[in-house]
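Entry, Tuesday afternoon. Goal for today is a structural model of the target with zinc ion bound, before we commit to ordering more compound. Inputs were pasted exactly as handed over by J.K., no edits. I checked the ligand SMILES twice against the vendor sheet because last time a stereocentre got dropped in transcription.
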Amino acid sequence: MQHNLFSSDQYTFFCLSSGSCGNCYFIGNGDYGILIDVGIGVRTIRKRLQEHGYDFEHIRAILITHDHMDHIKSVGTFAHRHHIPIYATTEVHNAISTHRLIRYPIGTAKRIIQKEAPFQIEDFRFTAFDVPHDSTSGDNSGFYIEFGTHKMTLATDIGRLTEEMIPYLLKAHHLIIESNYDEDMLTNGNYPYHLKQRITSGYGHISNKQTAEFLAENYKSHLKNIWLCHLSSDNNTPELAYQTIEKHLTAKGVQMGKQLQLHVLERNKLSPIIKFE
Ligand SMILES: [Zn+2]
Ligand SMILES: [Zn+2]
């Protein structure tokens, strides 16, 4: 199938799903794309790719942030049935290979990456960086992505903001960052104590307020787009996440909608496609 929706020097980004219901991101151009995480069903991925004009034959690689099911659900199928290379650290590959719910082995599709060691896939240069989170392997990555003149950072499932991570967040022109929960909703909600502890432990997720304060304190004029991701269904709403981040940035004098576009990635929903020259 010829794919010529737009010129191949135009870069594209969209999210196929975000949240504990499953995560999947697409970065690509008019000819091909790369997926980051495949935590939703294969059929849903195909259907959502097709809505933006792509199919599996356009997918050149899959990168994995960590071994939680909402990030790896379809990884075996993509490796085994579709022979798409799977890029992850050794620890994450080991955890996938012993995961009882991953039906097919990665086999020859296995590609090992190392943190802080940039690697190139076609026109995209990726650097994995360390993220604190409570995955089975204990090994979690964010990704810094360079393409054309653009710099994009994906930081999801981050228990807290760390010194190692911050430089990659600050360099981004386009930032996908977690905004998991509203602190009042979590405190007053009916999650059991151990779950509340897990989320706020520094190895779970970060709140709207933590994300908002970080962004406001560290705003850089080269930052053009923010996508808030991995929103909790029980302890957050898209409106609350948006308003919390918007309020903090506006208070710092950032002209929202002009200098900076703020997007919220709704749970289990295909986002609009964004094109970059
Ligand atoms: Zn997750
Ligand atoms: Zn996770």
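The chain has a mean pLDDT of 96.
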